[in-house]
Amino acid sequence: DYQKVRSIYINSQSLASNELPSYARKAVQTLPTFDVSVVRDETTFWKLVETWQMLCNTIRQSKRSALQIIVNELSVSVAMKAKGPLELPVKRQSLPSDVQRQLEEIEQNAVREFVELGMDPILDFQEMLSMRDHE
Predict the structure, then answer these.
(1) Whole-angstrom Cα distance, residue 122 to residue 25?
(2) What is the pLDDT of residues 89-108, one digit of tens each?
(3) Where are the beta strands (DSSP E) in the chain?
């Protein structure tokens, strides 16, 4: 997975531009390659694992930020249409039930899309830490 994702991000400027925040775009170009020698050298292996986890965390945070923007924009937009003064922050329970359902659906879709990426920054790494042999 690592080599595949590395290749996609290095060879696709549009993907890197769309998925990663600006500060991470240059870092993608320096991602180490993965080959058999990496697995045999423990220090290099763990450095690669750490890099992969940082990439996973960066993508997760980028997705989370994008989702929060969508949720906030929809919430504020709907709240502004309501009668009376706008109360910030907008509380979800103050929104109409159909909008609350829409927000839940948006969030569930975002979770599903992230899981499909296969870039969980925790579970895979816990499994690696628990392995006895990394070859």
Answers:
(1) 22
(2) 999 999 999 999 999 999 99
(3) none
